[in-house]
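During the no-cost extension, the postdoctoral fellow (Dr. R.K.) reprocessed legacy sequence entries with the updated structure-token encoder. One reprocessed record is reproduced below for audit purposes.
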Amino acid sequence: MSAIHVPRILDAASVDETTSTVLGASIVGQRVEGVLYTTFSPGCTAGVVKHETAPYEGYTGTWANLDTVTFATANTTHRTNFTGIHGALRSRISTAISDGTVTVDFLGTTY
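Re-encoded structure tokens follow.
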């Protein structure tokens, strides 16, 4: 097993349709057990983040939904666990973050 840590794939963002750094095949293209931490800043009042996967990094079609994180409480972290092989992985703000920002961190292990 090998640990993977890619801090801050999405950093203090709030604008609708902002996408994170894409994690490509070199990171998620092998069997990965991972977690995405979605953190809404203090003061947040609304917003939605989608964690998505696609067959490769430059995919231009509609990415498949891995999880949808809807704002519930400010200054709170939501955890999305997953296992599998992905061509690419990203996070995308699908509804603007109101009165604050959102940050997404990725941690994982390869087998």
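The radius of gyration is 13 Å. Helices lie at 25-28. The remaining legacy entries will be reprocessed before the final report is submitted.
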